[in-house]
Amino acid sequence: MTARTPERDGAPSPAGAQPPADVRTAGSREVRRRLTFGVAADLADLPAALSPWQRAYEAWRAAGIGWGHGAPPRDRAAAPESEPEAEPKPKAEPKPDAPRSRNVVRAAAPPAGAAKAKDTKAKGSKAKDAPVVAAASASPETVPDEAPEATGEPPSRTTEPKRAAGGPAPRRRTRRMRVVVAGTAGLVVVAGGALFALDHGGGSKKPRPPAALLAGALFAADPAATTDGLVQDLAVVAASGRTVVAAGTEGDGTPGRERTRFLVSADGGHAWKAAKVRAANGAEPPPGEAPRLVAGGTGGWVALGRSAAGTVVWLSGGGATWTRHLDTSAFKPGDQVNALAATAHGYVAAGAAGGRAVVWSSADGRAWQRIDGLQAGITGLDRVAASGGVLVTHGTFSRQVTRKKGKKKVTRTVRGDGLWRSADGGRTWTAVAVPQAQGSQGATIGLVAGPGGFAAVREGRQTTGRKKHRRTTRFGVLFTSRDGLKWQAAGRFSAPGYGGVERFGGSAAGFGVLVKGAKGQRTVLRSADGRAWQPSGTVVAPVRSSGLAVAAGGAVTVAGRQGGDAYLSGVNLAAVPGAVHTELAIRSLAAGPGRAVAVGSTNGGAAAWSSPDGRGWTRGQVPVAAGRLADVAFGGQGWLAVGRTAGARPAALALTSRDGALWQRAQVPAGPLAAVASGPAGYVAVGGAAAWRSSDLKAWKRAPVAGNLVDVAATGSGYVAVGGRDGKPAAWTSPDGVKWTPTAAPPPAAGPLTQVAARGNTLVAAGTGPALLVSPDAGKTWTQCTPSGARQITAATATPQGFMVAATAAPGGAAVFGSPDGNGWHRVPARGLGGREDRRLTAMTSAGGTVLATGAGVRGGAETPLLWRAPAREGKR
């Protein structure tokens, strides 16, 4: 029996009008609306004197849905607290027909079929008059989207009818009502002998659009991996009192995709935690920004770095939470900001622009002032330190020197380095000199504000003995100055096998140096006064140091990088929550008979997952292969996934599978492969300036192509490939995957094409910009038809009803668009993609009547897979 939902005027809904099962929820907006407007008025045995609001409350309570409009009319003191609506959380649920694996992860979702509504009788004296509620598989929402209309009298504090003055109070009448949530058919209410099926398809409201969910828990990482697969780097470390901050980036190695990282310690560098980073509007900051300078003082912390848009400023009160700002007024695109220091009155940065030194100052780190036109001849500044009201910088200079050579005068340019001092906040500068003493030689190394003033170091050397007994000893010499004007040697330092100073740092608590030793060993030395030095640990050879800081108490922290991992001396960063994440990326989706396959990489190695329904995903058994898979296709011989190996000289990576679960290595005599498609002539893989075809996944035939092929698709008459040639968009067609012919020149776009989808001989192609190109005749002619509001097309697929594409959208977030033929596009409702969050869909496929899409979202500063499922008919208007 099919339950039909009466409309508000009593007309039944047509059979089959219900929305898909995965978007119907027992406590959804539509169910609550029906309870409020469509059923509350018809409930039997309710006192006639009740207001519409009171009757609505009784209907909600009987259906087991929380009342979210404050205290109920009957008893305001007992009103339940409302909770915000939450996305369904993924949970593990193994599929009977899937391989047994601990990597099976399933998303919570309602069952696909509709259960029959069944009248349930309550048992027992207490249950006899109470409604019976059967919970649906999806949790009911507890916060209403709108309040019932307040027509008639205002709600009272009791649901009992008013009694006449002086009359006896009437006895409360018992409501006899039974409620059943019948699977996905909706909420069924038996009231007054009438059967009402409250389905999402009823009423005037449309069903809620499918939501894109953060789905990192659905795609299992490699349980046997020994690495996280991401590249971390701590570029700078600084201390202020007992607080130490280290900053850098984390990413998969792709330039422009790295994420900002801040770590903070409140106890001098012993215990660390990951700091929170937010944009000024509270959203996740964009990728591609790298902090390179950090300074802390009494007014808080400031960090400076670069992005494609210019100089980025991060601010923090105590180092635990950072807020990003983009300064395009004081900082220009060509500026090189090389040094940063906290002063008694704010912050000062130093650098260069156009071959001239530049200084920037700020009282709070937000508003910066630019100081150009420093002392003539200073070409750039690379260090700055502040003590009291005095600034000292180090940089380079250039000046013209004229000398008499014979009867002629010869003018030449002399370049060198030096120190300059300012006592007026950086507006005027005077050159100062650091003498050579105690065997020192060469230029100064480092510049810090230490105990009692300023400090810098130089390399030193002393030779003793004669002839065969002659011996040279190397060491470092520390120079100090109270006012930055007069400098003197304060002491020497050395270590076994001394090979020079690698890093120098200091604070009011003392000094620290990292010196090179024998066989790549580095030793940390520290001193409270610059005279007496003592060892304070070692740094192993593979570490590339990037900074050194001295916290209150004299503890020294060294930051840097060890291979592909970040390094902090004495700290296991993998044990710091949120400091290190695991690489997990889905790069392509494809559908086959009864199964969808996703490919990409985890932990730095190739990975594949499969699913019978797009909800539960099982990690496939993939041979260990460092690299990543870029595309996957299903054909007559099963599944083929292609990509590239890792390393400085990547090669082709290809895997095959009969069932999408068990994969084996395949030999493809090619370089890195970008995409694959399956058509009537077999499998075609493309990459670089070549295409490869195979009918049996064993023998491959190469076809050279004049251009760079990026994507390929099967058409009604063969194959189409897209990419670029001479920096312009280009496309090629082939009847058999071997002989390729350039198509007519596509309309101008921002650059080469990066993706193509085909439905018969109708093609849609996109590149790095917003342009969407359409060809109705397999590439013979092209037109441009870009969805309104799309900034960049990120994924495309053909569906039984036409095409669907995903794009980044204006003013922010992402969006999905649909079209029957590629010529007219409309926006497809999709939740979870818009707003301030950085979310995007980058892979899309049509699996029967469902469109699956994956991409990436950001949670806690780390990228995680995004999953979106929708009926293919959503692509239609």
Automatic annotation (TrEMBL):
Ranges of compositional bias, category Low complexity: 11-21, 130-140
Identification of the protein by name: Uncharacterized protein
Bilayer-spanning residue ranges: 179-198
Residue ranges of coiled coil: none
Stretch list, region Disordered: 1-29, 65-176
Compositionally biased region (Basic and acidic residues): 1-10, 86-100, 116-129
UniProt organism field: Actinomadura verrucosospora
Keyword annotations from UniProtKB, A to Z: Membrane, Transmembrane, Transmembrane helix
InterPro entries: Sialidase_sf (IPR036278), WD40/YVTN_repeat-like_dom_sf (IPR015943)
Signal peptide from the UniProt entry: none
